[in-house]
Design brief:
The chain is of the alpha+beta class. It contains 11 helices and 17 strands.
Length: about 425
Amino acid sequence: MRRAATVSLLSFHAVENRVRPLALQEGVALLKKIIRVIQIGLLVFCVLFTSLSLVFLGIHYQDITNLLSTWGIVNSAFIESPDRSTLFTGASRGLVEALGDKYSEYVTGEEFAQVQERLGGEFAGIGIYFTMEEDVPLVVFVFPDSPAEQEGLREGDRILVADGTQLAGMDMEEVSDLLKGPEDTRVVLLVEREDGTTEELTLTRAFIQYITIHSQRVDAAPQIGYVHISSFSRRTPEQLEAALDELGEISGLVLDLRHNGGGEVSGALGAAAFFVPEGPIIFEESRYNIRAHESTGGNVEMPLVILVNGSTASSAEIVAGAIQDTGRAPLIGEQTFGKGIVQRYFPTTGGDFVKLTVTRYLTPRKRSIHGEGLRPDIEIPMSDEQYMQAIFGPQGPDPEGDPQLARALELLAGQ
């Protein structure tokens, strides 16, 4: 009996030893199946999430695979090993450039810091007024005792290059940003003289007392006031108010916006509010909405005429467009430049920025300014020489050499 019991006990232990590994193997296999199911589920989720994200963003699978394919080809087949960071930055630049908007661009963190430094404080200049002629800056006035005058920059000079940057094709604001900078810094210009010769000039920037508003009574018609605004700043509205007060009692006003390349939008809105009746001065249209900048009703009710030309741009077009659309006054001169869009910087996850055009300006009648400009009510062409003499010459406002001003005085005399 004992021997049989011993055998039975030994048999039990043998069976137990066989069952335990089998149960462990089955548990491991089950765990592997669960892990595999989870992995497949996560993979399916990632694929679906990525696909839905791409569809939501308007990106097609083929576009992504083509981009990755291009990356692989360039990275593996180019004669030299490329810098990956440079490739990705170039791809990002290309994405923005493909929009076909010259005002939108991809900006590195270092470039953005330079832009902020340029926009964040007081900046010195070289002491000129310029316009764009055939897409190249043309000097139309040189301030006395300015760096420009001291180094021999003259009226009629064309500025071709500034610090190695070709200026052809830029707009007035971009050129102005290049010419401005901290006090006592240098800018090297390549200029073309009126006789066709070129010369390199090195100018040291200095703080210039720019006169943005000039006002006086017209000698040929003393009852008429004349105000020329060369650009807009935050102080323009108060300066305009002071100029109007200084003119005193007048029967009409000529507001000259010729060769005004724009400036601070807030200054332009404040200036327009003097003349525009209650209602919208301008609309800002984005991809998603339109918002209006309103006037509470201008307090300058005298007869008014506005002078414009091809160098009237940006903020100056806001003022001219609002006055024209509300019927407050006619525009006389030539079609304006047509710059009516706003840019904004968006940070990327890598520390760079995307500068994109986000809104466009519309006149009170919701006409787009950008790319169109404003067509004057009375078109009268003038040459660049006539403009320089009329606006910046020593004689002041003189209808003898300024047919646009002469027509404005005729209109005001008849009112």
